[in-house]
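Input (Phosphoribosylformylglycinamidine cyclo-ligase):
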Amino acid sequence: MPENTGASYASAGVDIEAGDRAVDLMKQWVKKTTRPEVVGGLGGFAGLFDASALKRYERPLLASATDGVGTKVDIARRMGVYDTIGHDLVGMVVDDLVVCGAEPLFMTDYICVGKVFPERVAAIVKGIAEGCVLAGCALVGGETAEHPGLLGPDDFDVAGAGTGVVEADEVLGADRIRSGDAVIAIESSGLHSNGYSLVRHVFFDRAGWELDRDVPEFGRTLGEELLEPTKIYSLDCLALTRLAPVHAFSHITGGGLANNLGRVIPDHLHATVDRSTWRPDPVFTTVGELGGVERLELEKTLNMGVGMIAVVPQDSVDVALATLADRGVEAWVSGEVVERGDHAEAVTLTGDYAK
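Output:
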């Protein structure tokens, strides 16, 4: 009989066996993220989490967040380094959860690739799992999708969703903030995962730099600097709430410090932030100088060295700073909250950055 030459999933570019191999490789990493509440293992159609653990709450509120890491995936692809981008994904999700005071419970991920290379997918999941460990949450499931024809063989993207829980009367936010509160800045680990379209345009299109270029100001190559993982703050922030009366957090992501802090400042109040209280890492100033980017544009695109803000009463500043220092987290008082008065904006940045 003639050989069957009909179409198949494999001939369309989807390799089911490679996908199964990727799942086998990632199981060891997912296992490291388990919590007592996780029921079952990897491989089911849905991840299971024992909600009876929430009985200890009087009125548990579930918090949910979803995000990706934007065009930072292009740096990982070009570098051929896939085991750090997962840290970025976890940080972008769980640090949104903790802003309202929620403890991250579990995450799921979505990895979309042009072609499944099992070891590559497993490396991405390894990074996600390591990030979940740092955040104290479980990775209960995910999806790997192969999209030949839409993505090139080396192209990929990642996204994730997380769920957390917070006691209803302990939710943090604008309604807790009072005039006189201190604004505490918590350092970032670098660019984190925002503004990479601008960063890539400046370094690659305008300056013509290569990823393997050694940059003395960075103390490493450009690629290594750009792949620095997003700092995961969730456990540090939760520890802070247990020892100090935190009124609000603000996760400094796309939109910059003023825009994100403004999201938790009530209409009748105003926050001032003094730039002279810190010195941004060289990567921020380098982007500005190489690209001729104005300060305002930098500040509304990049975190400028501050990844999280905590708003606390003035009499809790010492405890808050000591708590973060004990956890190895660099933080400092950067401003205060005052009555809105004639201020049109929720947040004003004053002064010049420290040299």
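The mean pLDDT is 91.
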